[in-house]
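Predict structure. Chain length: 152.
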Amino acid sequence: MTLLCITGEVIAPCELGWDDLACLPAQVADVSALLPGREGGGVRLRAVLGRAGLKDGATHVSCESRDGKFAASVPVSAVREALIVYRLGDAPLPTEKGGPLRFYIPAADDCLSGEVDQCANVKYLAVLRITRGAGHDTRPTTAAEHSTLHRA
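Prediction complete.
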């Protein structure tokens, strides 16, 4: 079953399932060591991007939720060490924890502070769309929108 689609400015667009993610290098056994209060295990974004290969000129990655309602576009250079959490113990990451995939940026700035902020941590991740320049981004741009997002 496909969990993650990698598309756009990549050499080899691909679809990855749970076993594919588990076989990649750069595994992180316990994300709580990097993200206190968070649970699960995952893989570094750099390993996932290495699988697809970036084309020359690719600068951003848009992380898009499964339902298509949320997306965050961030510079690849700033998030190579980000995490894609896909498991809790030996089982898939449950929906109530933001699964089956969740994107986290360790040490992200406070929300509304720039391109790489906490609002770029995407629940229900399904698509990584690599672009030349900033791509699809639905993050809030005002304090009111931000408050609404976090209440949801």
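Summary: The beta strands are 4-8, 14-16, 27-28, 41-44, 60-65, 71-75, 83-88, 91-92, 102-104, 125-131.
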